[in-house]
Task: inverse folding
């Protein structure tokens, strides 16, 4: 998907919501467990209920991989389902891959060619040749981990070099030599407070994929205030707060209600911060 | 597997060879392509030919994932095959995973419980909570990326902090608070020359998984000279140099010959550097 299409979708829907499809088999509504593929059934219902309010879906591969072959099937079928029924919605494989050049090529081929997603999250630790194979696909996106939402983000992402530049800033700056704001985004956690604006300073035009709103405690208003740009430049993810809004037979309806609430807030924030 | 068992296997076999099982479908011998699962057939033959000389196998998950469901089957069956036929051999899932705590738990469960491997490679970028879920399994190992063998390793792994400590050294030092030399190893590339001894200084007792000998150009002798310790402390990986030694019907035999050559050198190095 091109950047202009993503931006248009955001303004058409008045939402920059990304729904995280992280279906933990132990948390699925009981009545789904006797279906042939409970994860796939769960995802389809969540997608149908939230699609009016979402511009992106982000299946986290761990939740599929842990179910073995059945899980991979559910992942691939979920991508197909979104692609066919909601072709305007951006699909992110949250895989956090990162490996040497020839292996990175295999991962890029898997996610972009075989699975057909729009974007893959990539870990930057190993540097240029672990990232660039993902950047070679036209209209596909690489979403690089920069400043993540978890506690451990202080351990290495915040290491300061001799000039006071932190690792997450170095990651953003250096990677903008390899890609550009039309094929490269950054993960910046909503839990990072004012640091979000430090990330924005080094990536003034780039989209940010922002996890950590909701269950992890980040504030949507703060994220918009600190990092929204004229083309929005944000995809804010919510997983658990939406997909587990109810564990009963009304799980999909409840997910729709939560997604709608977030999208309404987002609409207001677009008016407020996006000139 | 316990560290004492790994060390015993190394001294019994007089080898610290890890064979990388990275089967690229485009490089497999032609006569295997009409088998039901060519990757699995290829792996089995390579394993039978190299098992007398290897103490570890390292399937790189990318090469399986890119074949979809068929690939996952091949990976799981390969692990089972090694486990049943060669129970003393250490199995590493080269997955380079790294995600927030609850997701890292899913990955740990997948590889340790579902697949039953001994070790998983993990990317350190996201810090403590992305690593510790892997460390909670008794007799299982976490192999953290420290100083990798690829060109891009200079981009972020070599960033120096204000005290002159580089990111790869900080990763090793900090992670030794989370795990210990009985459940934590480090990836240190054979292509890094004298830097290997800098990694050894901060991890004096830890095992190192060393890729980059062979196709990537690193020297086995140099690695042993710079980083071997009294309990060996090294697993040196070779993938392409062994598994693609021949593309004909004699591919397994040729792989065995290459593995034997490396193991013989390793035996000499154990005598020379391991007191």
Result:
């Amino acid at each position: 998907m091109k950047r202009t299409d993503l931006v248009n979708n955001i303004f058409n829907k008045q939402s920059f919501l990304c729904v995280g499809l992280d279906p933990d088999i132990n948390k699925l509504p009981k009545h789904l467990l006797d279906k042939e593929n409970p994860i796939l059934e769960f995802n389809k219902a969540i997608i149908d209920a939230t699609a009016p309010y979402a511009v992106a879906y982000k299946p986290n591969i761990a939740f599929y991989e842990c179910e073995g072959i059945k899980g991979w099937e559910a992942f691939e079928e979920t991508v197909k389902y979104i692609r066919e029924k909601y072709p305007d919605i951006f699909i992110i494989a949250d895989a956090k891959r990162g490996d040497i050049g020839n292996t990175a090529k295999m991962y890029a081929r898997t996610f972009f060619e075989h699975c057909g997603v729009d974007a893959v999250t990539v870990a930057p630790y190993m540097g240029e040749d672990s990232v660039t194979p993902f950047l070679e696909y036209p209209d596909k996106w690489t979403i690089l981990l920069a400043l993540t939402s978890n506690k451990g983000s202080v351990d290495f992402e915040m290491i300061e070099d001799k000039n006071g530049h932190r690792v997450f800033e170095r990651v953003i700056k250096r990677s903008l030599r390899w890609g550009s704001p039309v094929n490269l985004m950054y993960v910046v956690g909503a839990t990072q407070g004012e640091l979000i604006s430090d990330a924005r300073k080094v990536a003034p035009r780039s989209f940010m994929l922002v996890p950590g709103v909701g269950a992890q405690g980040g504030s949507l208003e703060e994220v918009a205030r600190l990092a929204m740009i004229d083309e929005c430049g944000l995809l804010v993810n919510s997983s658990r707060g939406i997909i587990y809004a109810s564990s009963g037979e009304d799980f999909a309806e409840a997910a729709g209600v939560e997604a709608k609430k977030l999208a309404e807030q987002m609409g207001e924030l677009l008016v407020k911060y996006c000139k």
Notes: The first strand of chain A starts at residue 17 and ends at 21. The domain at 3-273 of chain A is CATH 3.20.20.70 (TIM Barrel). Chain A has twelve helices and eight strands. Chain A has a mean pLDDT of 96.
